[in-house]
Amino acid sequence: MNILQILPELVVGGVETGTVDFSSKLVERGHKSVVVSNGGPLVRQLEAAGAKHYKLPVHKKSLFSILRCIKELESIIRQEHIHVVHARSRVPAIIAFFSARRITAKNIETHLPVFITTCHGYYSRHFFSRPMSWGRFVICSSNIIASHMTGDFSVPFSRIKFIPRGVDIEKFNFTLPSAKNKQYRTIGIIGRITPIKGHTFFIKAVSKVIKAMPGTKVVVIGRPPEAKEDYLKELKVTAERLGIIESVEFLGHRHDIPHLLSGMDLLVLSSTGPEAFGRVIIEAQAAGVPVVATKVGGVTDIIEDNKNGLIVEPHNTEQLSGAMLRILTDRGLADKLARQAREDVEKKFTLSAMTQKTLDTYQEAVSKPRILVIKIGALGDVILVVPALRALRQRFPGAHIAVLVGVESRQILQGCPYVDEIIIYNKVFVKQRFSNFIKLAVNIRRCAFDMVVDFQNTNRSHLLSYISMAPKRFGYRNKKLGFLLNYGIKDFNVEVQPVCHQFRVLNTLGIQLKDQRLELWPSQDDFIGIDKFLSWQWALKDQHLVGINIGGSARWKTKRLPRETLVKLCDQLSGLKARAVLIGTKKDVETAVFVSARAKSKPINAAGKTTLGELVALVKKCKVLISTDSAPVHIASAVGTPVVAIFGPTDAARHKPPGENVVIIKTVLKCSPCYKLDCRHLKCIKELDTKDIVKEASRFL
Fold first, then answer.
1. Coil, strand, or helix at residue 666?
2. Closest Cα to residue 284, out of 267, 301, 259?
3. Over the stretch 364-391, which tens digit does the pLDDT of each residue have?
4. Cβ neighbours, 10 Å, residue 88
5. What does the angle CA 538 – CA 544 – CA 547 come to, to the nearest 5 degrees?
6. What pLDDT digit, counting tens, does each position of 177-214 carry?
7. What is the pTM of this model?
8. 554 and 693 share a domain?
9. What is the domain extent for residue 266?
10. Origin, by domain of life (predicted)?
11. Same domain, 68 and 117
12. Strands, DSSP E only, in 222-325?
């Protein structure tokens, strides 16, 4: 793979050193490693390891600089054929995200660069921190950071990758504290000199140690940012005021950390704010240097108090000085802590382990796309999308496939082996306020989809596709907002069946229509529930059941069979020794009661008395289903039940369900198909001869 990492600068620090070490491992394993930063002293070491460096001012927060860097980074991504863009800081993440999103490809098969972030800090909740949550995966080095990103930035847990930092233990010579024959003890602190690192707290505590153990040396390694130069002066003043300035040495930036650690008897991490991890801790532990650290952030993921180090509360100078004295005066304790710490580093915090876990994350991001399918239409429309879902699963076997469906349709996909996640589109909630639509869009965006297949083809669905920020968006450009689909196609006004219509979109993904079968997956509990229901209705086990759909969409009054027609069907079917089963929703209960009261054949009234899963099981138990063009027709086709499908205002050529045992009945009129929701004469339905319907149904009895 070709990997690009981006961070502000390559100065000495945990993030920067880790980037260089990781790059060297990438090159060792045969990958291309590219790093973009504003440069720094570690560039020479990076390039010596075989990685490539580009210098860009990605550390600047000015809008003009960010926009310029986005364009330049896009050029680098194209030039180096980058597969993964890995951002390690906030402003670079903004630049990297939009640079990666600007990459498009004429060839659909081309893999677009995947954006990944690693959170190296406990970020405040403002705009510049948000891009760290936009990664396809968000890598966190500690549990505290993972909780922070899920809780404060709403990153789904499925996108969090817990990968602790690692060190190249071969660079550190492990020596037990008791083996260091020195006349004096050396205490060290390593890190940027900023207030959050607690240097003032450290200086005050270490002064007590020096008084108790004269001759103790203190080394402070690191330098302050340009804006914090005065803080370093304050530390020196504090050390002078406490009378220990002669014992404290400020070394500034150093590249020879392993060498410096070899001369230490104790390392202190005195941070007062949340630490994302604390790389310097595992470096010290790899070298056999005992550690005292404050109980902040990810420190507790590394140190187990009194087992591989000592932990104290932040700001508590008494605790800190006491812990330091315990280790310096008890060589047995120091050796015990050092041995256990080294063992833990070898098990959990090696550079090789971190590299492998990160590469596994890259591979998953590249090879296992996250796909969103949008189909928020009626129940029957969702059933008709099953062949497309099956084809997508076959084309992308390792993908995470989610489907956005309406509230009424969500149950129909339960148990579907081709779907990993169902996202609910509550039409009532969304239409109440535009802000509710935005909430839904934001939640979809947080899922970090790589691809959206929009089968709904409305302006709203196109907008949702775009807001998802998925790099690839497929569908028909047949609405005003169709241009938001960057891989959209033109919809020709040709009458084709829905499944074929959907596969025209999938053809752009190289997926051909080979299997039109509809499928549904009623559970065992659904069949048990229906068996109980039928037994209560005195249905015999060998009795032929014929389902009759008495309802339909509330919008389509023209698709409903008249009540008198339903009564005739029930009684005529009884002459074939078949018993009618009235199916419908709770809205059809009144019609069902009317038909049951008028029909002499005592049909089974199941309208509004079953769950959706039980309805599917019931239709499967029927010998044949009689229904107008509505969802039960597609349910029957999906479970293999023969169908007598009645078409009035709609065109059978366009809406006939796939399957062999499907019989079409329609009245030939000049006005049909009209696709009217209401009609004053309704001849296409009222002029149907029930004997013709029963005759066709008898073929399957």
1. strand
2. 267
3. 999 999 999 999 988 889 999 999 999 9
4. 25
5. 90
6. 999 878 889 999 998 899 999 999 999 999 999 999 99
7. 0.82
8. yes
9. 169-349
10. Bacteria
11. yes
12. 248-252, 266-269, 291-294, 310-312
